[in-house]
Amino acid sequence: MTETVSGTVSGVGGRPGKRPRKGLKMKRVFTTPGVHPYDEVRWERRDVVMTNWRDGSVNFEQHGVEFPDFWSVNAANIVTTKYFRGAVGTPQRESSLKQLVDRVVGVYTRTGVENGYFASEEDAEIFDHELKHALIHQTFSFNSPVWFNVGTRSPQQVSACFILAVDDTMESILDWYKEEGVIFKGGSGSGVNLSRIRSSKELLSSGGTASGPVSFMRGADASAGTIKSGGATRRAAKMVVLDVDHPDIEEFIETKAREEDKIRALRDAGFDMDLGGKDIVSVQYQNANNSVRVSDEFMRAVEAGGNFGLRARLTGEVIEEVEARSLFRKMAQAAWECADPGLQYDDTINDWHTCPETGRITASNPCSEYVHLDNSSCNLASINLLKFLRDDDSFDVATFVKITELIITAMDISITFADFPTQKIAETTRAYRQLGIGYANLGALLMATGHAYDSDGGRAIAAGITSLMTAVSYRRSAELAGIVGPYDGYQRNAEPHKRVMRKHAAANDDLRTLDDMDKTLHTEATRQWQECLRLGEKNGYRNAQASLLAPTGTIGLMMDCDTTGIEPDLALVKFKKLVGGGSMQIVNQTIPRALRRLGYLEEQVEAIVEYIAEHGHVVDAPGLRPEHYEVFDCAMGERAIAPMGHVRMMAAVQPFLSGAISKTVNLPESATVDDIEQVYLEGWKLGLKALAVYRDNCKVGQPLSVAKKTSEEVPAETSAETAEKEPIVQVVEVARPTRRRMPNQRPSTTTRFTVGGAKGYMTASSYPDDGLGEVFLKMSKQGSTLAGVMDAFSVAISIGLQYGVPLDTYVQKFVNMRFEPAGMTDDPDVRMAQSVMDYIFRRLALDYLPYEDRAALGIFSASERAAQQRGEDPAALQDVDTAALAQSAPIESGKSAPIEKAQPAPVEAKPAEGPSAGQVVPVAVPEPRRVGASLESHQGRTADAPLCMTCGTKMRPAGSCYVCEGCGSTSGCS
């Protein structure tokens, strides 16, 4: 796409009469001379309407937005709601993807011209057209801050990742609080290493004992929580790191696990968790990801079973020795309990550091993919790999090289005009110009080409792509250094930077290829590394860092990617939004392509796809050979990829990345502490820079399990033997329970509730002679998936109550169930709920169960808890009219309808009856839409992910974070 040539600077940022200056000579790849890239696309107008899932109201509406006809509804909705600038309903509001791309690319092109990046104005125009073509065709995307800020009146912030620094002074600690707050306010995240702060086992200059870093984490956590609560769609994202040799390391390791225990124990024991109460303020450290920075010395001590010294922060002397294995076990135990801490492998990170003369790498951003100098930032861009898969299933290497050149050029230009949240970050980033090119859709690419994610072939392709991407990035960085100069800190770090380049090239030489695709990738990567080393020796490098693998949450959806970052596919069936509203369940479109690649005939493909649509997996699919099952393994489901499969994939690509990888290794709920130890140990041995784990449902008080029950045991006798012994067939009439239907008129109570900011309504109806018989729940807009699920759940519970299932049985099953939304409620009797279900059944228990039954379950009202704290008997508060109870019908208070003897007539199976005519009850009735069955029912297990607080859709993992496929909101990463 480009060549480096000499050209006059007149018209490209220089002054006439000056000596000629080098510039990039651009070549067209995607575009045609004389034709604007917009004119080669068919555009269409759409309406975007987003509703509030809490009350069904419309929270965003814009009509007539313009997008290419091949953009999905979801991608268009996300771009319209998140990236279009200007007040809705005003002429200033952007209404077309053309306007958005023009706004952003215009700034890039003008800045490139003004700073001498291009040889001529014609080259600048080619750059402009090629960049626009790539963006509107979803070939790649910049990270979210670019779309938010570039070309607007806001500060031109382009970076999504920040690393701060904290010294052992109160002034520095307070600056940390302030700087984090500024970054959180802008919707970005930051990381920090607190190891310079003296431990609680060391003395202050005044003679007192230091507070220690964990105590200062409390203040930062409260600040992050406050800023999170002030934001509408995302939480504050932060990373806190502590070195393994810090004297407070054990306290740091156990911090979050202990808080999780406290939440469960206090709530279950009936303690007052009201706002302002003494218990709720003790629940802390919940707003950060925690990581331990481990050294090779420590890991070798773990292997050898030796001791390890914890060192004073000021003097460096060993003040305590601990058993390395015992400390390592505590890390794994805490991660088993609450997913924290993760590990960062310090010596590996700094061995690949291009700028060690400036300072060590001590921390990372919240998702652990950006690892570089303190007080620095990184802007990201990700390539959609599936765009380079040709119809013949070969990878378009030449075009991939050209798009990588284009992106690196644009990303470097962005640092020239970018603004930053603090002066220290601005100085470091402009001096070292860190970039973070990466990719998305790797999982989809591997499946489409018939490669299993956890296979040598899959890893060879991933390694080849990553090596080629980084080689081209640094080669282009060396070319830019010859045009506009190397980064300011290069001369100081020239030798270590070139050493790291040689390490990358050597790792590429060691790659083992298996088939034509990875051989082609490896051949080109080798050529690019050779050219990179040659140009780097001559010119130096423009950028201290070039590549990493980010979560690609929102921008992955913007590019209509099936998979994010380095992740495999989440499941084989997904939901697709429809233009008219609603959604439908579809089988991933890469599956038919993969089956054809594997040699299956068209009728076999259709049969297998139909089977997957029904079952959600490929096991026993008609005609599918068992040896091909692994191609369709996913992160979840019947055939979930093994934890070490994820680790091996990370290890395959890590040697070719400047930074690290945002990815969490998921383990099943049955995983042991030993399993986590093994993952952490193998991550170190395989050369990873950082690693985090998550054991399914590890953060719940009562695990939510959907494990399939085994078949009922059958008699040992064979059917033939049984038949010989049964000459007479006898029909036995089995007594069955009878449904006691609700009368047309019955008393009911409607409760409005809020859990963790999510609003809903519950209507509970009773039999006239007492006893709960019906529950209706309303959350989200009619016709939405969430509303449909709540309706179905209400019907199921209501029918169960009417068939005689005791209410206390439901309460026992659903209380303490934990999932998002969770948190504070507006109910004085239930101030904290672990989920909507937890709240609902606590409220029903309080309203319909007698005190004795509730006391056995640990459920008390606010007045009862207050009585307990005063030393009084809460039972004395119960005003029970025993005479009225004696005269009432046989249905006891709080009980469901009794089980009656079966009647001869068959029971008519109908849904639970709704309220009688004339009653105004806020019950959502689903509109007829093409909504498939629950995705999780097809996967055979639940995704332990939160609900989106914006639209109510269950989020999906994206690296170390979560992204909402409904609206594009993320759990903290841009």
From TrEMBL:
List, in alphabetical order, the GO biological process terms annotated in this UniProt record. DNA biosynthetic process
What are the names of the required cofactors? adenosylcob(III)alamin
Name the segments for region: Disordered.
1-23, 887-921
**Reaction(s) catalysed (UniProt annotation):** a 2'-deoxyribonucleoside 5'-diphosphate + [thioredoxin]-disulfide + H2O = a ribonucleoside 5'-diphosphate + [thioredoxin]-dithiol
EC annotation from Swiss-Prot or TrEMBL: 1.17.4.1
Q: Supply the enzyme class, top level.
A: oxidoreductase
What CDD domains has UniProt attached to this entry? RNR_II_dimer
Q: Which SUPFAM superfamilies match?
A: PFL-like glycyl radical enzymes
What UniProt keywords are attached to this protein's entry? Cobalamin, Cobalt, Disulfide bond, DNA synthesis, Nucleotide-binding, Oxidoreductase
Looking at the keywords, is Nucleotide-binding present? Answer: yes
Which superkingdom? Bacteria
Q: Where is the TSCPD domain?
A: 743-847
* Single GO MF descriptor: cobalt ion binding
Q: What does this protein do?
A: Catalyzes the reduction of ribonucleotides to deoxyribonucleotides. May function to provide a pool of deoxyribonucleotide precursors for DNA repair during oxygen limitation and/or for immediate growth after restoration of oxygen.
**Family to which the UniProt record says this protein belongs:** Belongs to the ribonucleoside diphosphate reductase class-2 family.
This chain belongs to the protein called: Vitamin B12-dependent ribonucleotide reductase
Q: Organism source for this protein?
A: Microbispora catharanthi
